[in-house]
Design goal:
The protein is an all-beta fold. Helices cover about 0% and strands about 45% of the residues.
Length: about 110
Amino acid sequence: MLDTRKGRGLSGVFGADQARELPATGVGGVPDDARAVVLNVTATGGSAASNLRVWAAGELRPNVSNLNWEAGDTNANLVVSAVGADGTVSLRNQAGSVDVLADVVGYYSDDQ
């Protein structure tokens, strides 16, 4: 679904204080009517200690992070995020630059 190192989903590293939107429905086996996605999110090669936040696009950014790391580390976390009205999720890096990967593990479509 997402690997910024290879230009899959989004290309190029996430810069400091940069938020980007990632299509979440209609890709990776997630149906268009999904209300939330379960993602394995990985940060790798960060130039600084930082954190990543994941949330429904179009909504307010949360005050808590989903993933934290130290410079140079590779860390992963399982994240459940609602999907925005346009079928996307937002991801935001706090500091430095970092490559981000995200793989779909599952989804909620709220009939389950």
